[in-house]
Amino acid sequence: MNNTGVIFKRTLRDQRKTIIGWGITMAIYMLYVVVLYPTMQQLDYLNEIMQVPLFQALVGSEVADFTTPGGFVGMYVFLYTPLILAVFAILSSEEDQGTLDVLLATPVPRSQLILEKLAAGIVALVFILLGTFVGYLVGVVFTPSLQIDWIVLFLAFLNIIPVTLL
């Protein structure tokens, strides 16, 4: 009996409402951040604080100038999104749901179990990040001053996946 993909499909089916909810929440967060950009751009005194060498060393000199579109998105999206998505990864674990014992009792090799759970986690993160990216695209409609090449931004969103998995 071939049971390849059973755990992967079951994990995604069990978490579909959670994935959709997190995707919508992250899209709203991204929309809020993008619409906030014109207000933050006017706060010059905060930019002076960001020029402190210690702060620049901590977050990187490119991100420290958050009055630019790239610096702003880097500061408010790419610093916090991996942390927020790590909470999703922790909350969606089998151990926290109390189903780990049942899952380990199934006649599935441990390697298959780990690989399918990892693949389902990656797919879930991709869907949540797609929701976040859609939030950015909607936000740009309301905030035309925040223009970043959407292909570069999309690749940056994909770069969040390994950081979150770590």
Structure in words:
The model has no long low-confidence stretch (mean pLDDT 80). The protein has helices spanning 6-14, 16-41, 44-50, 53-59, 61-64, 69-78, 81-91, 94-97, 100-104, 110-142, 150-158, 160-165. It is elongated. By secondary structure, it is an all-alpha fold. The chain has twelve helices and no strands.
Low-confidence stretches: none
Strand content: under 5%
Q: Main sheet?
A: none
SS elements, strand count: 0
Total helical segments: 12
- Quote the distance from N terminus to C terminus: 34 Å
Which structural category do the helix and sheet elements fall into? mainly alpha
Radius of gyration: 19 Å
DSSP helix fraction: over 70%
Overall pLDDT score: 80
Q: Could you state the oligomeric state of the chains shown?
A: single chain
Order of helices and strands: HHHHHHHHHHHH
Mass-distribution shape: elongated
Summary tags:
mainly alpha; 12 helices
Question: In terms of topology, how is this protein built?
Answer:
Blueprint: H1 6-14, H2 16-41, H3 44-50, H4 53-59, H5 61-64, H6 69-78, H7 81-91, H8 94-97, H9 100-104, H10 110-142, H11 150-158, H12 160-165
Helix pairs in contact: 1-2, 1-10, 2-6, 2-10, 10-11
Q: Would you summarize the structure shown here?
A:
By secondary structure, this protein is mostly helical. It has helices at 6-14, 16-41, 44-50, 53-59, 61-64, 69-78, 81-91, 94-97, 100-104, 110-142, 150-158, 160-165.
